[in-house]
Design goal:
two-stranded antiparallel sheet, mainly alpha, 389 residues
Length: 389
């Protein structure tokens, strides 16, 4: 009996523990700096910190809550532009209407927030700061008498639009995508195929129904659910390989180049070996980056080179005639690539290679490059696992 009570108590206490995973320091700083930049831009460009009852061009407290969503959890359905702008504006309209119609302040505030939630839900524009927008209007009868329903346009509508634009620019500048891509959008290659993460055999309507069934439609978008299902399938596939590590399947006899290697030589190596990528290493073997064939193509296009024949042999000849700007491996290599250690489980390599961002994962021992796992290596390991089953 006592154990049962203790078990229940532990379960209750766990309910008060953090419900989200730990946030890396760089992500926390990225979100905080984004909110700072967005609100600063809004304040400098259009909205004053002081209340302006003539034009309505001033900052309101709910913009702080909107900034949390736009910059800290930009993938949330609650943070998307429609939710933010339509949610805040419709909530402001509800708050103004209640302020003009209901004299009792306590009743006015309660009705305003409740009405705002209902309106946002009907518009499919649920945005939590909208409740604070409605409450702000209901608590400010003097300001609302001056601004009327214009309060919904300025400061609320204008301020929210400015924050959304700031979030879009900041997301692009920091390597993030906002607004978040929706299910069914064209893939990154511009072809008609759905992105790999969405090839689940499930339609957008079916995924939406799953979210509604488990009451998660306000927490996850259809795109999020598709990516999670795909990630779970990849993780499960990794279990079929067994407890193998990167060291057991990696390629060890590597062809590498140094950062000063001419691109003409790099192109020749691609042509000779048929590689899709080449690691770049320092003289002491330290890993520096990876060059993909695509990097050479982009470099050629950027310098207005026209390929007369197949790549990379034709490119090699063109490079041999000179490059307009410094043509070294270090100039085109990518450093922001996934990497692993010799002890990394093979199952952990699957997501890195399956999502289409890279076709080779460098394997390091400390800082030194000791191997590489390509998609070919991974497919072979999966095939061996399937044959054993």
């Amino acid at each position: 009996m006592r154990e049962t009570e203790e078990t229940r108590l532990r379960a209750l206490l766990r309910g008060f523990a953090p419900a989200i995973g730990a946030t890396p320091l760089h992500e926390a700083l990225r979100a905080g700096l984004g909110a700072f930049a967005g609100l600063l831009a809004a304040g400098l460009l259009a909205l004053s910190p002081a209340v302006d009852l003539t034009l309505g061009l001033y900052l309101v407290a709910p913009f702080g809550a909107t900034s949390v969503l736009l910059f800290a959890v930009p993938n949330s359905p609650l943070a998307q532009p429609w939710s933010a702008v339509a949610g805040n504006v419709s909530a402001a309209v509800a708050g103004v209407a209640c302020c003009l119609l209901i004299p009792d302040p306590t009743l006015r505030i309660a009705v305003a927030v409740g009405a705002a939630i209902a309106v946002m839900a009907l518009l499919r524009a649920m945005h939590p700061p909208g409740g604070a927008v409605a409450m702000t209007a209901a608590m400010s009868p003097e300001a609302i008498r001056e601004l009327g329903f214009g309060f919904a346009l300025a400061p609320v509508g204008l301020g929210t639009v400015l924050l959304v634009l700031a979030a879009m620019l900041y997301g692009r500048a920091t390597g993030r995508r906002y607004p978040f891509r929706q299910f069914g959008e064209a893939n990154a290659h511009g072809t008609a195929d759905a992105p790999a993460a969405e090839r689940l055999g499930l339609s957008g309507d079916e995924l939406t129904a799953i979210l509604h069934r488990y009451r998660q439609s306000l927490n996850l978008g259809v795109e999020d659910l598709a990516r999670l299902i795909a990630a779970a399938e990849i993780q499960a596939a990794g279990h079929r390989i067994g407890p193998r590590t990167a060291e057991q399947i990696m390629s060890r006899d590597l062809v590498t180049v140094g950062p000063e290697t001419p691109l003409e030589t790099v192109a020749d190596l691609f042509d000779r070996h048929g590689f899709a990528s080449l690691p770049v290493a320092a003289a002491d073997g330290a890993f520096l980056g990876v060059i993909f064939q695509l990097h050479l193509i982009r470099r050629a296009v950027a310098d207005r080179l026209r390929l007369g024949r197949g790549f990379p042999a034709a490119l090699s000849r063109l490079l041999g005639r000179g490059w307009r700007t410094p043509a070294r491996a270090g100039d085109v290599m990518s450093v922001a690539v996934p990497r692993a250690t010799t002890s990394t489980p093979v199952a952990a390599l699957l997501p890195m290679l399956a999502e289409g961002e890279t076709d080779a994962v460098p394997i390091l021992h400390g800082a030194r490059l000791v191997g590489i796992v390509t998609r070919t290596d991974l497919v072979a390991a999966l095939a061996r696992g399937a044959l054993r089953d």
